[in-house]
Amino acid sequence: PGRVIRTVASQLSSQLPGYMDRLAALPNLEEICEEGSPRVLLEKLITQPIHDLPLPDRRILILIDGLDEATQDGENELARFLAEVIPMLPEWIRLLITSRPEIEVMQPLQALDPLVLAADSPENTADVIEFVQASMGRFASGGVIGRETMNQILDVSEKNWLYLELMLDELESGRLSLDHVTAFPRGLGAVYSKLFDRQFTGRMEEYARRDRRLLEVVAAACEPLPLDSMAEALGLSAYDATEIRDSFGALLASGDGRIKFFHKSLADWLADRNRSGLYWVVAQEGHKALASSGWRQYQGEIPVRGYMARYLPAHLKGAGERDKLFACVTDAGYLYGASETGSHYRLAGFWKDFDSARIRQACQESFRKQAPAEADQQRVCGTAVCLGQLLQQAGAYGDALQYFQEASAICAGKPDAIAAGHAYLNTGWCLRHMDRFDEAIEQVGRAAGCFGGCGHQAGRAAALSIQGLCLWHKQSASAALACLREAIRLFEMTKDHGGRAEALNHIGIVYRSIGLYEEAFKNLHQAEGIYARLRDLKGKGMGKCANSLGTAYWWSGDPGKALRYYQEADSINAAINQPYILGLTATNRGYVYLEQGESAKALDEFSRGRAIRAKLGTLAYEMMDVSGMARAYFQLGEISQARALSRTAIETLERCGTVEDRAWTYYNHYLIERDGTALERVDGLRALEKAREIVGGWLAGISDPDMRQGALERVPLMREILGAVGGTG
Question: Are 440 and 406 in contact (CB under 8 A)?
Fold first, then answer.
């Protein structure tokens, strides 16, 4: 997205009088272009400079062609970005987007009404005829293609534009002639067949032994594959690998020493045995070759680096090497190596394929085996932190806390204030997830002291970011905002983009909770843009941010957009095994469905959330889902079941914390009991008074009167509870 915005700005500067002058007047234009997130670039380079320009005498059309080709690893970051950008553009700027109808593009842009360009439509037929006549007419007698020949071309090409481009190349090379159109291959698949036949007829043994193996590896690769990785996987010299790659010509796109199929349709054709026949390629065989190569590196003395450090587990899984996969993703040394680039969070996604108790035991055994033999205590500390982070993400908070405390113990007797600060920081973050907020604030306070004492401002910012979120949980919204604003300032100063994104997410949550939705969206979308720029589309940051955006859109009255963000959060957090956020998303989605009257869907979501929370052992959040289930049963007419579950939730949450959870639960109980017997009505009114007491405490934590009044008016939970009929008010 950032590159697209910069390109559009460059092109607009040649079309709009006065626009270039406004860009040139920006005092920090170069810094904006280099450092800005896509949303900052959009605001600074496009929307602000053009908002009051004189209206041009024509519409400006921006063409984005082949948007589906921007899909990588199952995500189309550009499509999602465009879905947010389109409503922000002035009426005189239009976008023309072309794409194949793939889900990664269609889902983000589903609010639009696309024009389907069917191959057999009269318009497409007319365009094809015009193109063929203009580009291929020079190969016909007299420079004009006759009607019969044109009809033959339309028939064999199936009016496919990629086919026509490839056939034009064949005509220019002299391998085909318009005098014999009946000899043209029929359809794009037939083109590929003809190209492969020309290359390998008479030497299929060589294709099976050598060339197919290369295609298998390219098909299995998780990203465009470095040539040296391909050569190693196939046991080839660099010379032989280059020769094989070059023999495929333009079919294998190559840039920066990396290899990929020139078009997705070729990969699809090779994977379909019915279409590719003798040239059929099985990606699993490529996974086997890459897994074998990566496993040799893994067993070597030098730590695995580069491509295999990120993707060895994916290839082991694709190859069906379950035992090796388990050994790899529970190897403390391998996980520590991945943590040096932050890719260890993705590796934790493989843990969900195995029993969690077995995972925890294997990690512990690996760590205990390596720690005594490791002379470098800094590495031991780093490994403990890495394992703690992964176990915390997987919801094993007790195990995670032990690793963090071990890291703290290693740092305690050493003068390394930064290492000690990180140990305290991780401990506090884990305690926060266990709802032990006072202890968490104490630990991150120690971290802030360590970082502040040695001038490590990014570390101090991280401590303030966590402290701010804990203060929010403790009902101190104003104090939370003060902490988070300072954290963001320090992150900006130190150019710690990942830390800044997390702090922006935290402050967005606080703003949302007090009804300042404009501020919430501004900060949350900034965080989203930073995560996208950092390629965190399947990382822990983007997964949390998507959930936060979903809730902000829900509370602000846009349930459709909320559900889309919740779906994105689910996809990301399931992939990286982040059940804590999966549980939050299930609960939130349950309440959206309740509001829409879809009680059965709500019950499914609350039940899913409860199962996740029960497995995590987070009792307060589990009771939130039990309360939601009670409300869903009530709306479905199963009153006795609803009352029994609601009482369970109320009685249990008397011993638990988290403000929002308890307020919802008491309010749900009031709604369920208010039309019951006299005793039940009294019980319901008592619950309503308790909900009001909780909300009152939350409001008391907002020191600014205007902000407090805004929360009363705009936060659905507060508005409903305080506006309910009954009690003393």
Answer: no
Cα angle 150, 155, 157; round to 5: 95
Distance CA 293, CA 291 (A): 5
Q: What is the pLDDT of residues 125-146, one digit of tens each?
A: 999 999 999 999 999 888 889 9
CA 268 from chain centre, in angstroms, equals 25
Q: What is the pLDDT of residues 14-65, one digit of tens each?
A: 888 888 888 888 877 877 787 667 877 888 888 888 877 887 888 889 999 8
CA distance 109 to 103: 10
Instruction: For residue 249, give the amino acid letter.
Output: G
Instruction: Render pLDDT for 389-421 as a digit per residue (tens, 0 to 9).
Output: 888 888 888 899 999 888 888 877 666 788 788
- pLDDT, one tens digit per residue, over 454-470 is 889 999 999 999 999 99
Number of helices (H), then strands (E), in the chain: 41, 5
Describe the crossing of helices 322-329 and 283-299 by its angle, rounded to 10 degrees. 50
The pTM for the full model equals 0.65
DSSP 114-171: PPP--TTSHHHHHHHHHHHHHHHGGGSGGG---HHHHHHHHHHHTT-HHHHHHHHHHH
The pair of structure tokens assigned to 379 is: 């590495």
Provide the residue type at 622 as one letter. Answer: E
Order of strands across the sheet that contains 252-255? 225-226, 258-261, 252-255
Q: Rounded CA gap, 138 and 144, in Å?
A: 7
Q: What is the DSSP letter of 300?
A: S
Q: Which of 658, 607, 596 is nearest to 629 (CA)?
A: 607
- The amino acid present at 706, given as its one-letter code, is D
Which pLDDT tens digit goes with each residue over 463-492? 999 999 999 988 888 999 999 999 999 999
Residue with tokens 């098909």: 219
What pLDDT was estimated at residue 63? 93
H helix intervals, 300-455: 306-318, 322-329, 332-339, 344-347, 356-370, 377-393, 397-412, 417-433, 437-453
CB contact at 8 A, 717 and 660 = yes
Of 137, 175, 173, nearest in space to 153 by CA: 137
Distance (Å, rounded) from C-alpha 620 to C-alpha 584?
12
Work out the angle at residue 23's Cα, subtended by the Cα atoms of residues 17 and 29, and round it to the nearest 5 degrees: 165
